[in-house]
Amino acid sequence: MTRDDLPAPRPRLVLVGNGMAGMRTLEELLKIAPERYDITVFGAEPHPNYNRIMLSPVLAGEQTIEQIVLHPLDWYARHGITLHLDRKVERIDRVRRVVVADDGSEAPYERLLIATGSTPFMPPIPGRALDGVLAWRNIADTQAMIEAARTRHHAVVIGGGVLGLEAANGLSQRGMSVSVVHLAAWPMDRQLDAAAGALLQAELERRGLRFELGAQTEALLGDEQGRVRAVRFQDGREIPADLVVMAAGIRPNTALAEAAGLRCERGIVVHDTLQSVTDPRIYAVGECAAHRGIAYGLVAPVFEQGRVCATHLAESGIGRYVGSQVSTQLKVSGIALYSAGNFTGGDDHEEIVLKDPAAGVYRKLVLHRDKLVGACLYGDTSEGAWYLQLIREGRDVRGIRHALMFGAAALAS
């Protein structure tokens, strides 16, 4: 066999980030072009890809770490993927087209996919460096919270959004006394209106959670051993805290991309192809990507990005990502809530509202120019997917307005 008879080497694809966004993109790529690349994956955690959104039931004791693994180690081996776990990429050399990891090893690429996700926002509160103060983002954080719940009694969660309430519920399920500190007047104020928020708060209080609403944290106080012991508010009040969980939001993890000279504005700026606007050899998906000024933190748009990105990596680029209509749910057993679109409305919007406080059911639909533009549901979310479809389609609903509140099944009656 001569050199000319040897198969041409395949181009090399490097994925930085072993999470749900990057790995879904690889899944889609392997479906349509399984032999296109030699693939190398770097993951900063010592675990194979797992379902990050299912950390909530793990914390609550409803599932195990093993049950939320999406791609076990043998999956990578079966697909011929070189996997580097517990290895953080520290530098991208765009001139030489290599990535450099924290142990000094290098991986060359013809195409690079960045899926570094996001990092928790830690408010600049005095005392945040004390032992027992942590953010909640990964398996290590979850294990630290489970361990703390075995020996500690009082937990304070700073932030009453989705992540904060899931953390609070999980710690309460582990036997801790939990207080939720939130600046707004009701929990999940970005995902629910005041009426739905009040129903949610009442249900969580029945389950044992306490709420400090409209409260501004002034400092975290420590004991002589340097461990957190209390939270102090601006009005001078203090509440005990053996564990403090910061759930005040996330920020796109763009440090690696910025150091490489990629344009970043609230995320790595990408085209509709998910290619970086700076370097066409580099793609970005997930929470670290900024598409048309938006960085998405929910799984549905991230998966939509992955499907489009895969077509372009396969060089059959027929897909365009044009943005997503997103919806919100809460992963707390026994609580059903759902919101989508513009559920707050406005002066030129109409609202159709159903309230049944005794049954714990609330439903609000927001219309604008005869189109459904938003929905906020609590207690009965069975029609959430239908409402989201109507919002996405921008369909004129004048002909079905009489049935909107009662769901798709009412149209057939």
UniProtKB/TrEMBL annotation:
Gene3D superfamilies: 3.30.390.30, FAD/NAD(P)-binding domain. Keywords: FAD, Flavoprotein. SUPFAM superfamilies: FAD/NAD(P)-binding domain. One of its GO terms (molecular function) is oxidoreductase activity. InterPro entries: FAD-bd_OxRdtase, FAD/NAD-bd_sf, FAD/NAD-binding_dom, FAD/NAD-linked_Rdtase_dimer_sf, Rubredoxin_C. Residues 12-292 form the FAD/NAD(P)-binding domain. Residues 327-394 form the NADH-rubredoxin oxidoreductase C-terminal domain. Its cofactor is FAD. Belongs to the FAD-dependent oxidoreductase family. PANTHER family: NITRITE REDUCTASE [NAD(P)H], PYRIDINE NUCLEOTIDE-DISULFIDE OXIDOREDUCTASE DOMAIN-CONTAINING. This is Pyridine nucleotide-disulfide oxidoreductase. It comes from Sphaerotilus mobilis.
